[in-house]
């Protein structure tokens, strides 16, 4: 369980840093109209991860095999959250939907990057 909590902390830090850095780069690079959407999408990812961590934290005594099943069962509630936050974003002026979608999609490549870096660290000689 401790390994999972470390993973969640690491991913949250990576998400926040990536969201802020890309928002600054968008603003400086002339894509200011996408910044609001990007921040909203990145914020949606962060909220999703916090809720996932809170749900898992409630089940500390469950073995990892059964924990996977529990996480899969609660995916609907997190999916509804994403749909609701996306629907709200459509009503906010200044929030560009392309930025929102890009901000939400960035989670997957970051997870692969984290996995790849973790595997690389394990393979390095000590």
Q: What would you note in describing this structure?
A:
The longest helix is centred in the first third of the chain and has 27 residues, at 2-28. It contains 6 helices and no strands. It has 126 residues and is an all-alpha fold. The protein has helices at residues 2-28, 32-57, 64-73, 75-91, 97-105, 107-123.
Number of helices: 6
Shape: flat
Secondary-structure element string: HHHHHH
Cα radius of gyration in angstroms? 17 Å
Number of strands: 0
* Beta-strand residue fraction: under 5%
- Which range best describes the helical content: under 10%, 10-25%, 25-40%, 40-55%, 55-70% or over 70%? over 70%
Which structural class is indicated by helix and strand composition?
A: mainly alpha
Poorly predicted runs of 5 or more residues: none
Q: What does the main sheet amount to? A: none
Mean pLDDT: 82
End-to-end Cα distance, whole Å, is: 25 Å
